[in-house]
Amino acid sequence: MDARRESEPAVMKNRTTVERKSGRELVVTRTFNGPARLVFEAWTNPTLFRQWWLPKSMGMSLRSCEMEVRVGGKYRLEFEPDGMAFFGTYLEVIPHSRLVWTNEESGGGGPVTTVTFEEKGGKTLLVLHELYPSKEALDAAGTGAADAMVETFGQLDELLVTLGASAGRS
Amino acid sequence: MVQYSPAHFNASFAALSDATRRGVLEQLGRADASITDLAEKFHMTLTGMKKHVGVLEQAGLVTTEKVGRVRTCKLGSCRLQEEAAWIERYHQLWAARFDELDQVVEELKRKEKADGRKKRK
User: Fold this and answer.
1) Does the structure's ipTM exceed the value 0.85?
2) pLDDT in tens, chain A (170 residues)
3) In this complex, do A38 and B112 lie within 8 Å of one another by their Cβ atoms?
4) What residues in chain A have their Cβ under 8 A from chain B's Cβ atoms?
5) CB–CB contact A52 B89 (8 Å)
6) Would you report the helix, strand and coil content of chain A in percent, each value rounded to 5?
7) How far out from the chain centre does Cα B71 lie?
């Protein structure tokens, strides 16, 4: 297991912002304390990607994570235990600076995701931009994401109960 | 999370129990409109429409704003709160992901340092 060093003093976390720019667009920004090539690597190397993309707090895990990071290449993420999948195609790949891909799991309603990596003084400003085909699609995605999160928190609750039940901590 | 009080629920249900008012909400979901527009669209008097809009406003489903002589109606804050709530959940998800990504980046930095400058372009 990739044991994180929880005991390490917490570094000050950078702020994540989310903004609905228009009816069809959602923008997430965050700065990382590292050069763009490393942040980019964490987005394009499947082994690294799966270490962060499903935060432990979600209580879910990936069965598989395949990424063919080149223009026209495919990616596919499959969840445990039911095999639900996210998949799509890379439209643009500019090393250390820009990634664009489609999200095809929900038919034509999925967004096109653009991630840019902008390095400044050893830090990287990451901007994730999702452009939905319509306002309705974004509204629906919001509801869907909300439902998914409720479900996830439900799973977390269950997990906590299980953990509480097996009182003798290992 | 958005909190709804029972009184709020009752007001909402009462407001939604009428077909014209549901139609007005549907209409405002597409675009804001003045009371005059709405009265015309639903073939009723200005006074009648004012009453319906008043009920919707009471329930927080619609807000109105008077500019000059025109009172414009739009969908109320309930909807906005819902939207704010899902943006917040979306924010939590990405903030959690990125906190973990911080760790991955730290690990990569450490590794790169240990490997010397082998990887430098």
Assistant:
1) no
2) 444 444 444 556 888 998 888 889 999 999 999 999 999 999 999 999 998 998 877 777 889 999 999 999 999 999 887 788 999 999 999 999 999 999 998 888 889 999 999 999 999 999 999 999 988 888 777 655 544 444 444 444 454 455 555 544 44
3) yes
4) 4, 11, 13-14, 16-18, 20, 26, 28, 30, 32-34, 37-39, 41-42, 48, 51-58, 126, 128, 142-143, 145-146, 149
5) no
6) 30, 35, 35
7) 21
Domain chopping of chain B, boundaries: 6-75, 77-121
Q: How far apart are CA B27 and CA B56, in angstroms?
A: 13
User: In the numeric block, which tokens belong to residue B22?
Assistant: 């549901």
Long-range contacts from B78-85, C-beta under 8 angstroms, 24+ separation: B78/B2, B78/B12, B81/B2, B82/B2, B83/A20, B83/A142, B85/A146, B85/B1, B85/B2
CATH architecture of A17-162: 2-Layer Sandwich (3.30)
Q: What number does CATH give the domain B6-75?
A: 1.10.10.10
CB contact under 8 A, A145 and B89: yes
